[in-house]
Amino acid sequence: MSSGGNGGMVEDPLGTATCLKITREVGFDRLLRAEEPDTTATPLPFQADSVRTARDVTRSTLHDWGLSELSDDAALVVSELVTNAVRYARGHREITLLLMRAAPHVLLAVADPSDEVPTPKEPDFISENGRGLYIVETYSECWGWDCLDGGGKAVWALFHTGD
Protein backbone atom coordinates (compact mmCIF):
# COMPACT_ATOMS: atom_id res chain seq x y z
CA MET A 1 0.00 0.00 0.00
CA SER A 2 2.59 2.57 -0.98
CA SER A 3 2.58 5.14 -3.72
CA GLY A 4 6.14 4.19 -4.54
CA GLY A 5 9.32 6.10 -3.92
CA ASN A 6 8.19 8.65 -1.39
CA GLY A 7 5.48 6.96 0.62
CA GLY A 8 1.77 7.42 1.01
CA MET A 9 -1.36 5.40 1.52
CA VAL A 10 -2.66 4.08 -1.78
CA GLU A 11 -5.07 1.39 -2.88
CA ASP A 12 -3.65 0.92 -6.37
CA PRO A 13 -6.31 0.38 -9.02
CA LEU A 14 -5.08 0.74 -12.59
CA GLY A 15 -6.50 4.25 -13.07
CA THR A 16 -4.82 5.51 -9.92
CA ALA A 17 -1.49 4.03 -10.97
CA THR A 18 -1.80 5.77 -14.35
CA CYS A 19 -2.50 9.17 -12.79
CA LEU A 20 0.34 8.80 -10.30
CA LYS A 21 2.65 7.81 -13.15
CA ILE A 22 1.67 11.01 -14.98
CA THR A 23 2.41 13.19 -11.95
CA ARG A 24 5.73 11.47 -11.33
CA GLU A 25 6.80 11.74 -14.98
CA VAL A 26 5.97 15.43 -15.11
CA GLY A 27 7.13 16.04 -11.54
CA PHE A 28 5.49 18.10 -8.83
CA ASP A 29 8.08 20.85 -9.17
CA ARG A 30 7.00 21.42 -12.78
CA LEU A 31 3.31 20.99 -11.96
CA LEU A 32 3.61 23.66 -9.27
CA ARG A 33 4.64 26.12 -11.98
CA ALA A 34 1.33 25.26 -13.74
CA GLU A 35 3.09 24.58 -17.04
CA GLU A 36 0.78 21.70 -17.93
CA PRO A 37 -2.70 21.98 -19.45
CA ASP A 38 -5.62 21.63 -17.03
CA THR A 39 -3.34 22.57 -14.14
CA THR A 40 -3.62 25.50 -11.79
CA ALA A 41 -1.25 26.48 -9.00
CA THR A 42 -2.17 29.08 -6.38
CA PRO A 43 0.35 30.45 -3.86
CA LEU A 44 -1.06 30.87 -0.34
CA PRO A 45 0.48 32.68 2.64
CA PHE A 46 1.09 30.94 5.99
CA GLN A 47 -2.14 32.09 7.66
CA ALA A 48 -5.49 30.67 8.67
CA ASP A 49 -7.30 32.65 5.91
CA SER A 50 -5.50 30.50 3.35
CA VAL A 51 -7.83 27.60 4.15
CA ARG A 52 -10.86 29.59 2.99
CA THR A 53 -8.99 30.85 -0.08
CA ALA A 54 -7.97 27.27 -0.97
CA ARG A 55 -11.57 26.06 -0.66
CA ASP A 56 -12.80 28.91 -2.89
CA VAL A 57 -10.11 28.26 -5.54
CA THR A 58 -10.89 24.54 -5.49
CA ARG A 59 -14.63 25.06 -5.89
CA SER A 60 -14.28 27.62 -8.69
CA THR A 61 -11.68 25.56 -10.58
CA LEU A 62 -13.81 22.39 -10.40
CA HIS A 63 -16.83 24.41 -11.53
CA ASP A 64 -14.83 25.75 -14.51
CA TRP A 65 -13.84 22.17 -15.38
CA GLY A 66 -17.48 21.04 -15.22
CA LEU A 67 -16.82 18.96 -12.10
CA SER A 68 -18.95 20.75 -9.52
CA GLU A 69 -20.10 17.38 -8.15
CA LEU A 70 -16.61 16.95 -6.62
CA SER A 71 -16.63 20.37 -4.96
CA ASP A 72 -17.80 19.44 -1.46
CA ASP A 73 -15.45 16.50 -0.97
CA ALA A 74 -12.52 18.23 -2.65
CA ALA A 75 -13.01 21.44 -0.63
CA LEU A 76 -13.07 19.42 2.60
CA VAL A 77 -9.85 17.58 1.67
CA VAL A 78 -8.12 20.80 0.57
CA SER A 79 -9.12 22.40 3.88
CA GLU A 80 -7.37 19.60 5.77
CA LEU A 81 -4.25 19.67 3.58
CA VAL A 82 -3.86 23.45 3.87
CA THR A 83 -4.58 23.39 7.61
CA ASN A 84 -1.83 20.79 8.07
CA ALA A 85 0.60 22.81 5.94
CA VAL A 86 -0.08 26.00 7.90
CA ARG A 87 0.11 24.18 11.24
CA TYR A 88 3.19 22.01 10.68
CA ALA A 89 5.25 23.67 7.96
CA ARG A 90 6.59 26.57 9.93
CA GLY A 91 8.71 28.70 7.68
CA HIS A 92 8.90 31.91 5.75
CA ARG A 93 7.94 30.62 2.33
CA GLU A 94 4.41 30.33 1.08
CA ILE A 95 2.53 27.14 0.47
CA THR A 96 1.05 26.29 -2.93
CA LEU A 97 -2.27 24.71 -3.84
CA LEU A 98 -2.18 22.64 -7.03
CA LEU A 99 -5.15 21.26 -8.95
CA MET A 100 -4.63 19.08 -12.00
CA ARG A 101 -7.22 17.44 -14.21
CA ALA A 102 -6.02 14.20 -15.79
CA ALA A 103 -9.27 12.50 -16.81
CA PRO A 104 -10.69 10.44 -15.25
CA HIS A 105 -9.00 11.96 -12.19
CA VAL A 106 -8.43 15.24 -10.42
CA LEU A 107 -5.29 15.60 -8.35
CA LEU A 108 -5.23 18.10 -5.48
CA ALA A 109 -1.92 18.85 -3.80
CA VAL A 110 -0.56 21.26 -1.25
CA ALA A 111 3.16 21.94 -1.34
CA ASP A 112 4.96 23.29 1.72
CA PRO A 113 8.58 23.87 2.77
CA SER A 114 8.58 21.21 5.50
CA ASP A 115 10.38 17.89 4.96
CA GLU A 116 8.32 16.32 7.76
CA VAL A 117 6.44 13.30 6.45
CA PRO A 118 2.67 13.35 7.03
CA THR A 119 1.81 10.58 9.47
CA PRO A 120 -1.78 9.45 9.96
CA LYS A 121 -2.89 9.08 13.55
CA GLU A 122 -5.65 6.92 14.90
CA PRO A 123 -8.61 9.33 14.73
CA ASP A 124 -9.69 10.73 18.07
CA PHE A 125 -13.24 11.92 17.51
CA ILE A 126 -13.35 13.74 20.84
CA SER A 127 -10.20 15.79 20.28
CA GLU A 128 -10.15 18.96 18.18
CA ASN A 129 -7.06 17.75 16.27
CA GLY A 130 -5.70 14.63 14.63
CA ARG A 131 -8.46 13.79 12.14
CA GLY A 132 -7.05 15.58 9.08
CA LEU A 133 -5.39 12.71 7.26
CA TYR A 134 -8.22 10.37 8.24
CA ILE A 135 -10.61 12.80 6.49
CA VAL A 136 -8.29 13.02 3.46
CA GLU A 137 -8.16 9.22 3.23
CA THR A 138 -11.93 8.86 3.69
CA TYR A 139 -13.01 11.39 1.05
CA SER A 140 -10.37 10.85 -1.64
CA GLU A 141 -9.65 7.80 -3.77
CA CYS A 142 -6.10 7.76 -2.40
CA TRP A 143 -3.48 10.13 -1.03
CA GLY A 144 0.26 10.35 -0.52
CA TRP A 145 3.20 12.72 -0.71
CA ASP A 146 6.26 13.45 -2.80
CA CYS A 147 9.47 15.27 -1.93
CA LEU A 148 10.20 18.42 -3.92
CA ASP A 149 13.58 19.06 -5.58
CA GLY A 150 14.24 22.25 -3.60
CA GLY A 151 13.16 20.77 -0.27
CA GLY A 152 9.73 20.41 1.22
CA LYS A 153 6.97 18.17 -0.03
CA ALA A 154 3.68 18.02 -1.87
CA VAL A 155 0.88 16.18 -0.07
CA TRP A 156 -1.73 15.07 -2.59
CA ALA A 157 -5.14 13.49 -2.83
CA LEU A 158 -6.68 11.90 -5.88
CA PHE A 159 -10.36 12.01 -6.89
CA HIS A 160 -12.13 10.00 -9.59
CA THR A 161 -14.26 12.21 -11.83
CA GLY A 162 -16.50 9.50 -13.23
CA ASP A 163 -15.50 10.48 -16.81
From TrEMBL:
Keyword Glycoprotein attributed: no
Database matches in Gene3D superfamilies: Histidine kinase-like ATPase, C-terminal domain (3.30.565.10)
Pfam families given in the database record: HATPase_c_2
Molecular-function annotations in GO: ATP binding
Residue intervals of the Histidine kinase/HSP90-like ATPase domain: 45-155
Statement: the UniProt record of this protein carries the keyword Cell wall biogenesis/degradation: no
Alphabetized InterPro entries for the sequence: Anti-sigma-factor_SerPK, HATPase_C_sf, HATPase_dom
Keywords: ATP-binding, Kinase, Nucleotide-binding, Serine/threonine-protein kinase, Transferase
Protein name: ATP-binding protein
Organism from which the protein derives: Nonomuraea roseola
